[in-house]
Specification:
Layout lengths: L1 E10 L2 E11 L4 E5 L6 H9 L6 E6 L2 E2 L5 H7 L1 E4 L11 H13 L7 H5 L1 H13 L15 H15 L3 E5 L10 H12 L5 E5 L3 H7 L2 E6 L2 E6 L1 H6 L1 H6 L5 H8 L1
Parallel strand pairs: 3-8, 3-9, 6-7, 7-8
Antiparallel strand pairs: 1-2, 1-4, 4-5, 9-10
Helix pairs in contact: 3-5, 3-6, 5-6, 6-7
Length: 255
């Protein structure tokens, strides 16, 4: 469904992502891991169109979307959630989701006319809010929600857009121990739909182990490992690059 070929971006003399080629398939959740500064979020930005690649391609369903901006890529089927929530803070929870439903339906973004003309859009918005357990907060301002509920609302907006690819960049960042499981449960629900492709940038290895079908590892902007979670986590290159463990030293200590 989604493929990057030799995807590269340079900032001056620094190569932040270096010739990364990877394909992502429907029905799978791929975790993208690596140390700080490895290029994970930059790789996400290249895929979703927040920044333009210096070289290489991004393809969705075999179509080259490399020249498209972020809005056009979203319309084509790429859904992106960020480390920081992106909401309309002065609109209600329901209005935030309704705008996404309108965009998906091609009904434009008129805030008030569509409200009365298309009741079906409100019905769909409420269905999505029910799915993320925010129906009882539908009339609250987005800005008034606690951080955990704002993250849930962002997932609701993504769901309303009905993308083919869901991209989550550290979805539990800044969340409390009590809040994080709610977001993870939503991702589990999305994963159950085998027509969808999910990409997840996450630092918490317990989350990666539980949710991922596959792990790819970036280090210094390069793809250094790709495979099933257990094998990738146990590989020497990952233990050294991501976990900071030198396998040879570890063997000496154990001996």
């Amino acid at each position: 469904m989604l493929e990057t070929s030799d995807l590269t971006v340079r900032f001056g003399g620094h190569v932040a992502v270096n010739a990364v080629s990877c394909a992502f398939h429907p029905g799978t959740l791929t975790a993208i891991v690596g140390p700080n500064g490895a290029g994970k979020t930059t790789y996400f930005n290249l895929i979703s169109g927040q920044i333009r690649a210096s070289a290489g391609q991004v393809k969705l369903n075999g179509v080259d979307i490399s020249t498209l901006g972020a809005p056009a890529r979203a319309k084509a089927g790429l859904g992106r959630a960020f480390q920081l929530t992106n909401l309309f803070p002065n609109l209600s929870v329901q209005e935030n989701v309704r705008l996404a439903v309108q965009a998906r339906a091609g009904a434009g973004l008129d805030l008030w006319r569509i409200w009365s003309d298309r009741k079906d859009l409100l019905v769909r918005a409420d269905e999505v809010l029910e799915a993320v357990a925010l129906a009882d907060r539908r009339h609250a301002l987005a800005s008034s929600l606690p951080h955990g509920d704002q993250r849930k609302l962002e997932v609701a907006i993504l769901m309303a857009l009905e993308p083919q690819v869901f991209m989550f960049d550290e979805p539990t960042a800044g969340m409390s121990v009590d809040e994080a499981p709610v977001i993870l449960n939503l991702i589990r629900q999305l994963k159950a739909d085998k027509t969808k492709t999910i990409l997840l940038v996450e630092h918490k290895m317990d989350v990666v182990r539980e949710l991922s079908d596959r792990i790819i590892v970036l280090h210094n902007g390069e793809l250094v490992a790709d495979g099933e979670p257990a094998a990738v986590i146990a590989s020497p290159v990952v233990q050294q690059a991501y976990l900071g463990i030198n396998p040879e030293e570890n063997e000496e200590v154990n001996a």
